[in-house]
Amino acid sequence: MSGEALFPRERAVVAPGAVHVPGWLPVGRQRELVEACRGWARGPVPIRHTVLPGGGVMSVRTVCLGWHWQPYRYSRTADDVNGARVAEFPDWLVELGRAALAVACEMDGPNGAVMTAGAAEDGAEFGAGRRYTPDTALINFYDGAARMGMHRDKEERSGAPVVSLSIGDTCVFRFGNTETRGRPYTDVELASGDLFVFGGSSRFAYHGVPKVYPGTADPATGMSSGRLNITLRETGLPG
Ligand SMILES: O=C(O)CCC(=O)C(=O)O
Ligand SMILES: [Fe+2]
After folding, report:
1. Considering the domain boundaries, does residue 4 fall inside one?
2. Is any ligand 1 atom within 6 A of the Cβ of residue 173?
3. CB 153 less than 6 A from any atom of ligand 1
4. Residue nearest to atom 7 of ligand 1 (CA)
5. Which of 30, 33, 105, 149 has fewest C-beta within 10 Å?
6. Tens digit of pLDDT for each residue in 98-132?
7. What is the tally of structural domains in the chain?
């Protein structure tokens, strides 16, 4: 939404370990991210609609950093696109992820204990003593008709939180539970500059994007239409 909202949107703990921080990214930072994403969208692996094993095609377009995600695994090369090795995950993005997590932890119980308590489904534990070091980013572009069905981010072998940054058009982000795709869930509006972090017991919760509101982007971010979402994650994979 452009300009100041009539009512300031409040920071919220949506579920234990899941927090929403409206307007976290300053507009200049959003612009820089948009520029960087434009470059990554060109290559070495071009942004594309992911094809699912059943033949379905995702409506969002995606490009990855560090590790390439395809349903349902990570690899260094984009074997379902052009076989190229994905772009490096830059150090400045690790720092941005750490800053985001620090803000999220402040909202989330003593010393971020809830957020960082997540044991991985499969493998390494993420403890408060270890520094958050995301090594993959999924960059999703939504046009006005794009959606994302309810799913869990479960290919990572680390219980470290997912840091999600949104730029451009506002969307409805549906944050659910770890058991089913259905209720209970909470619908949150993610606008340009918003941060959402999910870790701890919410790390493997179902979530999705049922709706994007076209025409709500602030052109000052450099995005005249559409929505950009960047999720930073630790894969827990070696090397
Ligand atoms: O676009 C979003 O806000 C969520 C993206 C997402 O869930 C994903 O990339 O796994
Ligand atoms: Fe996801």
Report:
1. no
2. yes
3. yes
4. 208
5. 149
6. 999 999 988 877 667 677 665 433 333 455 557 89
7. 1
Ligand with minimal distance to 71 CA: 1
Q: Higher model confidence: residue 224 or residue 89? A: 89
* Residue 25, phi-psi category: left (phi > 0), alpha (psi -120 to 50), beta (remainder): beta
pLDDT tens for each residue of 139-181: 999 999 999 999 999 999 998 999 999 999 999 999 999 999 9
Q: Ligand 1 pocket test: pick from 62, 64, 140, 188 the residue with the most ligand atoms within 8 Å of its Cβ.
A: 140
Q: pTM (2 decimals)?
A: 0.94
Q: Is residue 25 part of a domain?
A: yes
**CA distances from residue 150 to 13, 22, 40 in whole angstroms, order as listed:** 20, 22, 26
Measured between alpha carbons, how far is 164 from 58 in angstroms, rounded to an integer?
A: 19
Residue 110 lies in a domain: yes
Residues 40, 78 contacting (CB under 8 angstroms): no
Residue at 193 is within a domain: yes
For residue 43, the enclosing domain spans 12-233
Atom 2 of ligand 1: nearest residue by CA position: 229
Please check the confidence at residue 224 and state whether its pLDDT lies above 60: yes
Q: Classify the complex by whether its ipTM is higher than 0.95, answering yes or no.
A: yes
Structure token digits, residue 171: 């969307």
Q: What is the CATH number of the domain that holds 19?
A: 2.60.120.590
> Kindly report the CA angle at 197 between 21 and 96, in degrees rounded to 5?
85
